[in-house]
Design goal:
It is elongated, with a radius of gyration of 18 Å. With about 140 residues, the chain is mainly alpha-helical. α2 runs antiparallel to α6, α2 packs across α9 and α7 runs antiparallel to α8. The protein is built from 9 helices and no strands. It starts with a helix and ends in a 5-residue tail after the last helix. Helices cover about 75% and strands about 0% of the residues.
């Protein structure tokens, strides 16, 4: 995108937006799909399993995850929301901002509770491209109001 901006080539900028926004949608969807086929995620055992580890664990999160119903609900919430992420392509602006804010909180929580700091800026950095891709998609489908 920067190369296209520097050379004033709108097609290169557009290709960058498609690549970055599209990759974000694919990444979230595939991550959710991988969890869906995982028995430990479907059963709710993944969360307590991770939160009790030395590397990614967190005492407070492990205590929350010790509740079978909380762990089950959380695991399925992650699966469903990640797989539903491509909805951002057609969501109206207010819903789009709500979805992206929710995922930003998700990544910030992962940074705090699991030490996965690198994902915060990596994924949130794609959101401007997701926003532009949303505008293009809604325009193409005639969904702009």
């Amino acid at each position: 995108m920067s190369a296209g901006d520097a050379t004033r080539d709108s097609r290169t900028v557009s290709a960058g937006v498609l690549l970055i926004g599209g990759q974000a949608c694919i990444s979230y969807f595939v991550s959710g799909a991988a969890k869906l086929v995982s028995r430990s995620w479907r059963s709710g055992n993944a969360l307590p399993g991770v939160m009790l580890t030395q590397t990614y664990g967190h005492a407070f999160a492990a205590k929350l995850a010790s509740s079978t119903s909380v762990a089950f609900l959380f695991c399925w919430s992650v699966i469903v929301t990640e797989m539903a992420f491509p909805v951002v392509l057609i969501a109206p602006p207010s819903l789009l901002l709500l979805i992206l804010s929710g995922f930003m909180i998700f990544h910030l929580s992962n940074a705090v509770f699991m030490g996965l700091n690198g994902f915060v800026f990596t994924f949130i950095g794609t959101y401007p491209a997701v926003f532009v891709l949303n505008l293009w998609t809604r325009h193409f489908l005639g969904l702009l109001s």
